[in-house]
Amino acid sequence: MPKLDAAFSALADPTRRAILARLASGEATVMELAEPFEMTQPAISRHLKVLEGAGLIVRRVEGTKRPCRLAPAGTEPVDRWLAMLREALAKNYERLDEVLATMRTERRKDRP
Amino acid sequence: MSKMTLKTEGDRVVVVTRRFAASPEAVYRAHTEPALIQKWLLGPDGWTMPVCINEARPGGSIRYEWTNGKGGGFTLTGEYLELAPFSRILHVERMHLPDPTPDNHVETMFEQDGTGTLMTMRMTLPNAETRAAMLATGMEHGMEASYVRLEAMI
């Protein structure tokens, strides 16, 4: 299950989104990812670490290689989507509660 | 206190309800006035919405741009279809990742509930394949973001 904050930050980067799009078509090693992106392997590795930390990809060990792929859909993308949506909305509405409380206070102040 | 409910209908419709301790007018305004929207429609902590265009009239445009202040960002655009102040809003929206995702249709209703408001938001989301692709490439919207911020934002 991707962690919302980490996933948002991970997805905000165009290179990382491109990596995920590439992984959507199948597993790849760091070397295979470095080539099309014209980046060094350490740079790719740093991006992969962020994606892994956000729960968006998983890696396995194969000899000295650690190929990565998209995190298993688990209970399917829909559930992940809904969990993220629920978390984002809950946070938004807590902030909205505060905004509404402030609107009420300001309105009272406006009155003579 | 858990005031929010989120339920699915089929695999494309999500219905969210939430109660607010304010009048329908206040909640409606908080959904349509940029200065108010920018205070709460933000998603995870650390994100802000420096660009907020919201033309609350039929055919009016919506444009929200979020940033995390570290070079990351998302954009959502949309159009209003119908507005009935202060009870109902119908609009479409999409995320740009940067390619636009298929339109989400969103109906938001505000009903007097005792001294407060019951808000019901009914979202008709892109199909399952599109959601999966968005999970892989962008805003697993969520709200999508957010609205996603999907939200959704998302």
Discrete helix count of chain B: 3
Number of domains of chain A: 2
- CATH topological fold name of the largest domain in chain A: Arc Repressor Mutant, subunit A
CATH architecture of the largest domain in chain A, by name, is Orthogonal Bundle
Uncertain regions spanning at least 5 consecutive residues of chain A: none
Query: Approximately how much helix is present in the residues of chain B?
Result: 10-25%
Indicate the radius of gyration of chain B in whole angstroms: 15 Å
Identify the quaternary structure here. Answer: heterodimer
CATH class of the largest domain in chain A: Mainly Alpha
Shape of chain B: globular
What is the beta-strand fraction of chain A? 5-15%
Please tally the helical runs of chain A, counting DSSP H or I stretches of 4 or more residues: 5
Q: Give the CATH topology of chain B.
A: Alpha-D-Glucose-1,6-Bisphosphate, Chain A, domain 4
How far the N terminus sits from the C terminus of chain B, by CA atoms, comes to 23 Å
SSE-based structural type of chain B: alpha+beta
User: Quick one: CATH superfamily of chain B?
Assistant: START domain
Number of strands of chain A: 2
Number of structural units classed as domains of chain B: 1
Q: How many runs of DSSP E, i.e. beta strands of chain B?
A: 8
Biggest sheet descriptor of chain B: 8 strands, antiparallel
